[in-house]
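Discrete fold record:
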Amino acid sequence: MSNINDSKIVTDNDVIMIEEEKASGERPNGIFSAGNEAVATVNNELDIKEENSADNNRKRRVFVGNLSYRTPWQILKDHMRQAGSVIRAEVFSDSLGRSAGCGVVEFETEEMAQMAIAKLNDSVLEGRPIFVREDRENSSLRHNTPFQRSERRKIVIWNLPVSAKWQDLKDLFSKYGTVIRADVKKTHDERVTKMGTILFSKEAEAEAAIAAMNGREFEGNILHIRMDRFV
């Protein structure tokens, strides 16, 4: 049965289809109505704004490495204030809750973050020269989450000379990549164990260091190096 309205014929099937379109927001043959198009446009704009916001936050953050295991976030924050107003500082921890020897600091402005890189890289904090670079992570600060990304980036070195210090290891291995942390292991009474560790920023850097230095001589000792199996 047909209804006649303003010289246009609208069938019962047409009426049903129009009502279904109103309910679902979708036109026949998969064509979305203007309402859905508007929602999609708004969602796209929100996604772009979120991406821009995350990028701006990242530019205001710096990554700090080679921290002492005893350095808390409060000490790190106070030290980094030399470059400007610090919004937040975080020292990463491992899966056991121990300091990972690195962290991130977020400044109020991008310019302050750049100042921190220029001014505080290689500055000494609690007896260790720290390195400061831009934070290359796109995520927000990882507050109170374990820093468990050391796998296959940390190497162990055996047969070090007893005179070796962590600074020597850092200088020796920095040619193969960014050294986040260098340590010479000691006993409880501070005696050198002839073993050390290096944490690189990338797996490829750790592999390059092993390939280049395993079996090489360092100050009269032949070094034995492999990936750390316990990170």
Summary: Confidence is low (pLDDT under 50) at residues 1-11, 13-19, 139-146. The chain has six helices and 14 strands. The first strand starts at residue 2 and ends at 5. The longest helix spans residues 34-59.
